[in-house]
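Sync notes, pocket subgroup
Present: LS, DG
LS reminded everyone that the earlier model was apo-only. Rerun requested with acetyl coenzyme *A included. Inputs:
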Amino acid sequence: KETKDQLIIDAGQKYFGATMCKSCGMIYSASNPEDEIQHIQYHHRFLEGIKYTSWKRERVVAEFWDGKILLVLPRDPSYATRKVTDVQELVDYELGFQQVVPRCPEKAKTLLFVSDDKRVVGFLTAEPIKQAFRVLSEPTGSKECSRAWQCSNVPEPAVCGISRIWVFKLKRRKRIARRLVDTLRNCFMFGCFLSTNEIAFSDPTPDGKLFATKYCNT
Ligand code: ACO
């Protein structure tokens, strides 16, 4: 049977096939020099981007056995807002998002999950919204457009729109995203704990949809 899948020849190289870097999480082919160069470049940029060097002032909104959550507001000192921009760039690169200018950046709230080894391993940005449209079903059409979720055309009132949620690949399924959303619900509006009906996830990825479905019990 003819196969068109083979792209690399296994000639007994020391490192053959796909490898996942244990520090940055990138999957690359160590036997392919171009891939390796790409990995080295990404590796440095990524680890530098998520590095957290203790700030003069930080707003700790939750503390855990494995890290803490910091809240960053748009008018915070530039060392804090710059870190938010740097991490958001890495997140957008991973998600394949084009640069999107937030509609009301002065009202955006960002949460950073900083691990005990001083890395930003979780990121969430949210902004006030007035309404949201419920995702109705599985994706429409072919596999290629697997993010074309079908949405209701009936708006429902909502308070908080999560525009980005991301957890470092090597730290997933440790409830970091859950803890970020729990913390957001507590600190988004002074004096009240938002219900899951009041929060909405904008344009979710397949991972984001699986998480949101589980989190919101929908
Ligand atoms: N597949 C199936 N279920 C999942 C998945 C998944 N990939 N991720 C989370 N869940 C469910 C599970 O039930 C999980 O509980 P369990 O581990 O006890 O079974 C529950 O959600 C809670 O998961 P967390 O551990 O809190 O989630 P995590 O910290 O791994 O982060 C996230 C989830 C943020 C979606 C992560 O996978 C990620 O960063 N993915 C890449 C970026 C992305 O796609 N972000 C969403 C973009 S959409 C948006 O930003 C609005």
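DG: The pocket of acetyl coenzyme *A is lined by residues 95, 162, 164-167, 172-178, 201-202, 204-205, 207-208, 210-211, 214 (CB under 6 Å).
LS: The chain is about 25% helix and 20% strand.
Action: DG to write up.
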